[in-house]
Amino acid sequence: MLATMQKQTSAMLNIFNMTDKAYVDLNQGRLNNYFIDNLFQGYNGTEGLDFIDYALDRWNVKYLSTQQSRLNIPATGPVILVANQPANLADVFALLHCVADVRDDVKIVLQGHIAALPMLQRRVIPVQQQGKHISLSTIREIQTALQEQRVIIIYPAAKPAKISASGMKDGRWGTAFIRLAMKSGASIVTACIESGSARLKLHSSILPPFLHKMAEKSFKQPLYEIKINISESITSNELIKLPVALREKAKLLKRHLYASAKGKRSLLSTERTISHPQNPSAVRRELDQADLLGETQDGHRIFLYDYKTDSSLMREIGRLREMSFRAVGEGTGLSRDLDLYDQYYRHVVLWDERNLEIVGAYRLGESANIMANKGVSGLYTTSLFDFMPGMQPYLNNGLELGRSFVQPKYWGKRSLDYLWFGLGAYVRNHPEVRYLFGPVSLSDHYPVLAKDMLIHYYQHYYGAQEVYAKPRLPYVIQAANENRMQSLFKGDDVEADFVTLKEQLMHINVRIPTLYKQYTELTEPGGSQFLAFNVDPNFGFCIDGLVLVDVMSIRDKKRKRYIG
Fold first, then answer.
1. Of 150, 102, 83, nearest to 123 (Cα)?
2. Distances 152 to 73, 87, 169, 229, 240 between C-alpha atoms, Å
C-alpha cells in the first residue's frame, strides 16, 4: 500500500505545471522527491488536518504569515480564498494549514491524484473536467460548501505561472470563482504564496549557468520556508457593482493579489474583516458580575452590564454589532463597532445560556447623568442631530436607546422581544425615566423609492408638531418621488396608508424596518414621534430617524407585557 501511495503521489506533480526545464532539473531530484519520499515514511495513519500537520512536520516545512494577515480571513460566513499557483505539494499543505488555524471548516479545490488521497477526502473538493470546463457536479459541490458557510480555497490560474525579473506571476485566471462568489454572497480574500521553490525556480531560470550550483546549494538546508500574505476581503456586492466583464474582474483580482502582497494600494475596495470571537468562558465570567434583569423559558438570560476596561464582553459586543449591521448594509467598516460612548453608557445583553453566546444587545444612555457629567455633547445622538431648546425637558427625564442588534443566526426568533423585556425591566426599576429617544436606522441598501416612501410616511403621520432637533446631514426626498407619493397616499388615514406602504414596498422586495414598526405600535396615537432624519456617512450612509417615545403613552397590553 505504501508503494502504491508513493506512486500515486509522484503523479501529483502534473498539477503544478512544472514545465521549465531548469526548474525540473534542479528541483525534481531535490525538492519534490524530498517531499514525496518523506511523505509516507513513518506515516501514522492520520487523516485530514492531522495528516497535514504530520506532512509539514515530516518535511520540516515552515510558513510565515502575520497575525493581521490571518485575521483578514472572515471568522464566519462563506468565503472564497483565491491563491496564486502552488509550486509544489508543500505550498498546498501550508496554505490549507494556515487557513484551518482560523477556520476549521475549510475545504480546498484540487485536481489530479492529490485530490484522490484517502486521507484528504474530507478536506478536498475534487475537480471533474468536462472537456475544458469544470463539471457541473464540481460546481454544485462548491456551491453546497458555500451554503454551509465554509471557506473554499481555489487556484484560479488557467495557465502556468510566468517568470520575469520581478518574480513569478500567474497566467490568465478563470472566472468561475467570481460567478460563485456573486451567486452565493461569499466574500473573496486573496492569498499570495511566496515559496522557496518559487524563488529557486526564478534563480534557475534567469541566472547564468555558473550560478546554478550556488542556487542548488542554497536548498541543501532541510528547512523549507513559505510566505503567505492574505488580503482584506472583497464583498460579493463590490464585485457585482464593478461595471466590467467577468474577465476584467478576474484581472483586477489577480492584480489585487500581488499588490496586496507588496503593501500597495489596490484598485478594488476592500472591507476590514470582522474580528474573531472572544472566549465564551471569559464573556460568561464577566456577565456573572452584571445585574440579572430576567430569564426566558428557552434558556436565555438578560443582563444589565456596565463597561469595564479590557473587557472580553465588550469586544464580543463590538464584533457582533459590526457583523449584524454589515448584514443589512450598515456598519462602521471596522473590525469591531465600539466607540467612546460605550464606556459610560450601559448595556442590556441577551445571553444564550445553552450555546454560551451573546444573542443581541441594546445600549442605554442615562441622559440626565450624562449631561451632568459631560454636557449635552456627551450624548451620542448629538453627533447626528442638533437639539433645540424645546428638547431639554425630554432629555432631563429621558433614556437614550441605540446600537441595538440581534446577531443574524438568531433572526426570525423572539430575540428582539426578549431585549425589550430587558428594556422594560430597566424602566420598571427607574421610574424617573419618562421618555425613550434615539436613532433608528434605515439601510442605504434600500432602493431610493423605498427610502423616500418610508420617510414620507413616518414624517407625515409621526412627525413632531415642533422642531426639537435638526439633522446635521438631512435626508431629502426626491421631488419626483414626493409628487408621486402625494397621489399614492391618502394623507388622512394612517392605517390605510400603512397598508399601501407595505404593498408598495413588497413590489420592490423590501419590508418596513422592524423598529420603525414596533416603536410606533408601542404607544397610543401621539405617543411616538419621529423628530428628524439624518444621513450617517460613518455608518454605511444609513438614514437615522430620531424617535421619541412617551413611556406614559405605552399601550396597556404592551405595558403589561414588557414593564409589568
1. 150
2. 11, 19, 22, 17, 20
Q: How does strand 398-406 pair with strand 435-442?
A: parallel
Of residues 134 and 166, the one with the higher pLDDT is 134
C-alpha span between 338 and 335 (Å, rounded): 9
* 3-class secondary structure, 102: coil
Length of the chain: 564
Cell 453608557 belongs to 345
C-alpha cell at 554: 405605552
Secondary element (H or E) of residue 448? helix 448-462
Average pLDDT of the residues in 254-269: 89
Residue 53, C-alpha cell as written in the block: 500537520
Condensed to tens digits (0 to 9), the pLDDT of residues 510-556 reads 999 999 999 999 999 999 999 999 999 999 899 999 999 999 999 99
CA 413 remoteness from chain centre: 21
Q: Which three-class secondary structure state does DSSP give residue 453?
A: helix
**C-alpha distances out from residue 405 to 70, 320, 363, 410, 535, Å:** 27, 8, 10, 10, 19
Antiparallel, parallel or unpaired: β 224-230 and 61-64? parallel
User: Which cell numbers hold the place of 371?
Assistant: 449631561
Q: In whole angstroms, give the CA distance from residue 551 to residue 407.
A: 27
- Cα separation, 80 vs 152, in Å, equals 5
Cell readout for 217 is 546549494
3-state SS track over 340-360: HHHHCCEEEEEEECCCCEEEE
Cell numbers found for residue 334: 471596522
Task: Break the chain down into helix, strand, coil percent, rounded to 5.
Answer: 45, 20, 30
Element (H, E) at 256: helix 246-261
Strands 167-169 and 61-64: unpaired
Place of cell 496586496: 260
> What single string gives the DSSP state of each residue in 263-323?
TPPPSS--BPPPPPPPPHHHHHHHHTTSEEEEE-TTSEEEEEEE--SS-HHHHHHHHHHHH
Which DSSP string do the residues of 169-217 spell out, in sequence order?
A: E---B-SHHHHHHHHHT-EEEEEEEEEHHHHHHHHHHHS-GGGHHHHHH
Cell matching residue 140: 454544485
d(CA 408, CA 358): 11
For residues 437 and 402, the answer to whether their CB atoms sit within 8 Å is: no
531 touches 515 (CB < 8 A): no
How far is CA 199 from its chain centroid? 34
Answer whether 0.70 is exceeded by the pTM: yes
- For 70, 130, 193, 230, the CA distances from 64, given in Å and listed in that order, are 10, 37, 10, 11
Q: What percent of the chain is predicted at pLDDT more than 90? A: 67
